[in-house]
């Protein structure tokens, strides 16, 4: 057996039989704490749904860029961003850059941009990410003296946002810029076909996506872990009436297995 494996196995045996010295080495103290050895520790990676992920390559390295879109801040978001970053790192084996983009203007005093694990008042582990306020980006665009670039940049923002948000929200958020948007070349197709028709189509897609994600969010909140493949099956359903039915059932079912039966019935109809 290689020396590395001998040392590894020996340390594992010692750590199991004599936990306090190892915990003291890691935390400086074992005073006033109870210790429990977790047998056969394993990490199971549940299915997680991400908003947008890019692969990036510069002159030196490849990266993953994860963007998470939020209407408003949620208390559990820092922990969730930490988990998403770890899962993306494990699945792609590349450095992951995480950003949260807030879309609804609010008077935030201080948006959290880190997830911290503290022990007895000392910050032990820290994961940081950047919080971006979309309204600041919009104001930055509007400060430009290049009017053509302004229109193109704003219309691109609307095109991307249309994949996630309904027409009413987009019209409200970009209300003052709608005249400028109508003059941008990137939205000429919207104008030619009828902006109202195009926006309604995007709104319908947004509704379907929202229903799909709401179902999975409820299941995850209630039962903790989403069975592998369940998310893919829910997102394959594009009938709003079926999704509304499944959403109502996701609130009431007693277990993920019961929901899976209802989902199968919906798929077979």
Structure characterization notes:
The chain is α/β, with parallel strands linked by helices. Helix content is 53%, strand content 14%. It folds into four domains: 1-42, no CATH class; 52-133, no CATH class; 144-193, no CATH class; 206-268. The chain contains twelve helices and six strands. A hairpin with a 4-residue loop joins strand 1 (52-57) and strand 2. Helix 1 crosses helix 2, helix 9 runs parallel beside helix 11 and helix 11 runs antiparallel to helix 12.
Brief account:
The protein has 269 residues and is α/β, with parallel strands linked by helices.
Helix content: 40-55%
Number of strands: 6
Order of helices and strands: HHEEHEEEEHHHHHHHHH
Please count the helical segments. 12
Biggest β-sheet description: 4 strands, mixed
Radius of gyration: 24 Å
Tally the structural domains: 4
Task: Provide the spatial order of strands within the biggest beta sheet.
Answer: 1-2-3-6
Class by alpha and beta content: alpha/beta
Distance linking N and C termini: 58 Å
Low-pLDDT residue spans:
none
């Amino acid at each position: 057996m290689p020396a590395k494996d001998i040392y590894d196995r020996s340390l594992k045996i010692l750590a199991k039989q004599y936990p306090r010295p190892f915990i003291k080495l890691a935390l400086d103290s074992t005073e006033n704490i109870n210790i429990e050895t977790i047998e056969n520790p394993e990490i199971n990676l549940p299915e997680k749904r991400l908003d947008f992920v890019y692969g990036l390559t510069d002159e030196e390295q490849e990266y993953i860029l994860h963007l998470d879109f939020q209407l408003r801040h949620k208390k559990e978001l820092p922990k969730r961003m930490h988990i998403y970053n770890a899962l993306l790192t494990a699945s792609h084996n590349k450095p992951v850059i995480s950003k949260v983009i807030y879309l609804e203007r609010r008077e935030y005093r201080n948006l959290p941009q880190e997830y911290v694990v503290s022990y007895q008042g000392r910050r032990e582990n820290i994961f940081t990410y950047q919080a971006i306020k979309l309204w600041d980006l919009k104001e930055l665009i509007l400060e430009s003296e290049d009017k053509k670039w302004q229109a193109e940049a704003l219309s691109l923002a609307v095109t991307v946002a249309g994949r996630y948000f309904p027409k009413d929200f987009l019209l409200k958020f970009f209300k003052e810029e709608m005249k400028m948007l109508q003059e941008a070349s990137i939205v000429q197709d919207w104008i030619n076909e009828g902006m109202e028709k195009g926006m309604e189509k995007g709104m319908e897609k947004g509704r379907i996506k929202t229903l799909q994600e709401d179902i999975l969010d409820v299941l995850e909140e209630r039962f903790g872990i989403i069975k592998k493949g369940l998310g893919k099956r829910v997102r394959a359903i594009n009938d709003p009436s079926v999704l509304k039915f499944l959403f109502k059932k996701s609130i009431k079912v007693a277990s993920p297995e019961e929901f899976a039966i209802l989902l199968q019935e919906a798929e077979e109809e």
